[in-house]
Amino acid sequence: MVFPAVLPKVAARWLFTFYRAARKLRRHAFQLYNRNAAAKPSPSAAVPQQPGHAAAAATARQQSAAAIPDAAAGGTGTVVCDAHGALLRSTALFPYFMLVAFEGGSLLRAALLLCAFPLVWALGERRGAAAIRVMAFVTFAGLAPGDADLVARAVLPKHYLEQLDALVYERLWLPARRKVAVTAAPRVMSEWFLREYLAADAVVGPELHQVAVGRRRYFTGLLLGRDVQQEEAFGAKGCAVADVGVVSSCSSNLVDQLLVPYCKEVYVVSRESRESAKLPRDKYPKPLIFHDGRLAFLPTQAAMLAFFLFLPLGVILSVIRINIGIVLPYKINFVAAAIFGIRFRTSGLRAPPADGERRRGVLYVCTHRTLVDPIMLTTALQKPVPALTYSLSRLSEAIAPIKTVRLTRDRARDAETMSRLLRQGDLAVCPEGTTCREPYLLRFSPLFAELADDMEPVALDAQVTALYGTTASGHKWLDPVAFFANPVPSYRVEFLGAVPREWTRAGGRTGVEVANWVQRRLGEALGFECTGLTRRDKYMMLAGNDGVVAK
């Protein structure tokens, strides 16, 4: 009986000792770095003995990025910037490794990375090369390069854009003639974003070692050097010199060693100015319209710990919430859903007109945010309304509480199907053909406008805080489960009234004109921007295919 009572005390004592040792190790490591930095000779001594370096590095001086002179912001030469410390407001690398582990790997890999964080923290998450190697090994070991590339193209750009530093981007990076980005993280994580979104001419960072297994290749998780990239950025003999270098006060030692000696002037971005330097959405280098992945938040260590603790409860809540929509009648599922944390708001619903001589049903033209859009519409109407779908998993189709009809993308057959369903009653359609998470509306297919004159636009919008309920490259059958696993999922359903007769085919308009008018009306109601992008554009960017599954 003594051993079970003593064991928790021993474990607690051991953990406390480890915590104190880790803090002491980290404090001494920083003190050693500061002493070395103070005792370090002038930048010219750290550069290879070549005339070009000595002359330029002799004029190097460190300044605060908050006091950038107009001459430096003029953009007359080359700028070299620390990607994860200066260009981005967040100086931590752990959230981006976690995104790769979770989205490109699995839930288990993400849990292992979270368990490794105490070791990463002890080694110095922001400055330590050993910490970066540990995160790289846990994240990439056994991962296929294609999966990592998919995350780099479809998931990471959203989080990078949200973390862009407005001061550094607008005053130093954007005006420069030549742009070079340096990163201590594996180059595969940020190179696509830096080149495609920020127009970087060169990206310098460690490469990941790969091994061939049969016909496929996998990462080993081991980091290699960056000699080839350094030649691309600074010249084959290392003689090229940048006009401006931008680092963070928390930049990695490797970044400092590579970046500082090659720059005439070095600007240091302090952490104190991080909160006020966020780049507004309307100033993004490219509009953020499409992105993939399940996580709806930046996965810091604290956020991921809370996520894993909530996940079992979230799965239970998801099962309960789905069954509320399947089992309970419409009159009481409002109350039941509210009890279990679903926020549902509806407006603009009018009393249905008398049938009279109406021979066809009403066509509800909806925006498309998640796969449960038609279910939320029927809940607001308090009656089942069949829905047209382009792609729906067999599981979602089997458990759906309403009738779903698949479209074939054959215009003649789809038109015949819609006409037949409208003769039977009301019908719901999402003419975008696919979901969009951001405040944009994709191009509306004009087919619905050519078949019905009695139409009513319905603005639907969904909000989540933990998991997105849509995916382009993942398992679609998990979409409803993921949406309802959020702590407080919310839905807005707004009925905008019937389309005026002068804006229908009966009023002399073409199908394209009617579709564009309905799109603009829905965009104004939701505050969304209308685009001409299509389902094909989305899937080509996020999944590398046209979004059509061959039978």
TrEMBL record:
The keyword Transmembrane helix applies. GO terms for cellular component: membrane. SUPFAM superfamilies: Glycerol-3-phosphate (1)-acyltransferase. The keyword Nucleotide-binding does not apply. Signal peptide: none annotated. Residues 362-463 form the Phospholipid/glycerol acyltransferase domain. It is found in: Membrane. This is Phospholipid/glycerol acyltransferase domain-containing protein. Belongs to the GPAT/DAPAT family. It comes from Panicum virgatum. Keywords: Membrane, Transferase, Transmembrane, Transmembrane helix. Pfam families: Acyltransferase, HAD_RAM2_N. The chain crosses the membrane at residues 295-316, 322-342. One of its GO terms (molecular function) is phosphatase activity. GO terms for biological process: cutin biosynthetic process. It is a multi-pass membrane protein. It comes from the Eukaryota.
